[in-house]
């Protein structure tokens, strides 16, 4: 016997709604073959107000100019999921601690190993790194400003462009395949538009020359005011590790909130929309931004740590280089083995209103990764330890045919 579903009449009388021909046909089908899942309580029509769930597929093609409205419109959904955020936040904190701790541990092991081998090979006596720093210092004739500029501007910038050169070749030519087979958005940038890429390169160079360089000058003045960043004595390696960890946490805080600020509807279309011209980012796009955003959201979160800590030039140079390489990986569009996962920020470029941070701790706290955690991208957001691309080992669900 067919049971008629009940609906609410405008005059509050319950009347049955007759089945359509299609509904009767589907109702007669065996239960085991039914693919439609039963509706939840929140998805029912109550008093004419539909409380349906958010359709993540629609948000993939959403106009970025409407993101401010969609972000506020989805706040109720995020609040409804807030009860699970306490445990999820702790998981995110543990993951961030594991990532930072593992990186520092590997760096310490690498440092000890390479120091031992270099000392054995060159026959250096005493502290190898201290001796090399002293040689570099005397090479510049005690010109601390020139030394600071080379360490904080020239060295990180060269590392940035050398690393990106490999990705630019892969993006333009589709080769080598041992890189391109790990592309995250397989239908994008295959190959990349050379005109669009050339525009991005010009913008990045302009930001580095006309904005990053002056900020380095200001940073030197500030650090000289309350310390000596080019001291002849190097800090201990354990202190360097501690400062790197603190700088990473400070970057997460300042980048998250400045990034969310630039997503405000009143600011986004004038400033941050430039960066989001790339819904499928490439490595060099990490610094492709409006000048205001480059200063406040790209540079300041990275600079604030060394400024507050009064870091030595060696630590600052190492931190700036790491920061530029990490943001390149986050934007490169390839989930390569043994490199940090770029799935988190790649998803941000795809969806616009998810995954604002670097480590993900504040996203979990504020619920701005709720959609991301329901996708296959979240399942792939891990360190790849095999040669099999995660798009193959964790494939997307096939789309249902209408």
Automatic annotation (TrEMBL):
Principal cellular location given in the protein's record: membrane
Lineage per the UniProt record: Eukaryota, Metazoa, Chordata, Craniata, Vertebrata
GO terms, biological process: lipid biosynthetic process
Superkingdom of source: Eukaryota
Residue ranges, annotated region (Disordered): 1-88
Domain Fatty acid hydroxylase: 248-368
Segments crossing the lipid bilayer: 96-114, 145-169, 204-222, 237-257
Compositional bias (Basic and acidic residues): 52-65
Biased composition (Basic residues): 9-22
UniProt entry tagged with the keyword Manganese: no
The entry's keywords: Membrane, Transmembrane, Transmembrane helix
GO cellular component: membrane
Gene Ontology molecular function: any one: oxidoreductase activity
Organism: Scleropages formosus (Asian bonytongue)
PANTHER family: STEROL DESATURASE (PTHR11863)
Pfam families: FA_hydroxylase
Protein's name according to its UniProt entry: Fatty acid hydroxylase domain containing 2
Compartments where located: Membrane
Ranges of biased composition (kind: Low complexity): 33-43, 67-77
